[in-house]
Design goal:
- The chain is an all-alpha fold and 71 residues long.
- The chain has one domain (2-70).
- It is built from three helices and no strands.
- The protein is rod-shaped and about 60 Å long.
């Protein structure tokens, strides 16, 4: 029983690591999109709307991207 618990914990950690990698990838995409569209304020706003929708419709954290983009 104890080994099953450890296996479940290991599996959960792997899934969390995969989620962290996806968030990092999406953050990089967001940085690229904002940089690519920075000369057009309307496009920048459209990108921000997409990111906000990701935040509302999933566990994706727009505020983390905002913090990352600020640095």
């Amino acid at each position: 029983m104890e080994s099953n618990l450890y296996k479940a914990l290991d599996d959960a950690q792997i899934k969390l690591d995969m989620i962290d990698l996806k968030i990092l990838e999406l953050t990089q995409v967001a940085k690229y999109l904002i940089a690519k569209t920075s000369d057009n304020p309307q496009e920048v706003e459209e990108v921000k709307v997409v990111l906000k929708n990701l935040n509302v419709n999933s566990n994706f954290r727009y505020c983390d991207i905002q913090q990352e983009l600020s640095s």
